[in-house]
Amino acid sequence: MPHYTAPARFTAHADAWLIEAWDLLIHQVNCLGGLNQWLADVQFRVDEAPHAWLITHAVFELYEGKRCVVKGTITDR
Predict the structure, then answer these.
(1) Sign of the C-alpha dihedral, residues 23, 28, 29, 31?
(2) Could you tell me the CA-to-CA distances from 68 to 13, 14, 48, 77 in Å, in that order?
(3) Left, alpha or beta for 41 (phi > 0: left; psi -120 to 50: alpha)?
(4) How would you write the pLDDT of the chain (77 residues) with one tens digit per residue?
(5) What are the domain boundaries of the chain?
(6) Is the pTM above the cut of 0.90?
């Protein structure tokens, strides 16, 4: 299945975005009707990341440079 990695900005912790950025690793589980709509497993790439941010309803964006390329919401499966 496809996967993607990029720096993530969490809406609830937007102030931290200017100080530190954490990469999320996204593994596609299922396509949800559209090519760009995935159900995916999400995790940080490193142990030191703020794993407590990965809670239900957390909203995040993934960036390539200054451009937002993904918008997502953490859900329960």
Answers:
(1) positive
(2) 16, 14, 24, 25
(3) beta
(4) 578 899 999 999 888 887 888 999 999 888 887 777 888 999 999 999 999 999 999 999 999 998 999 899 999 86
(5) 3-73
(6) no
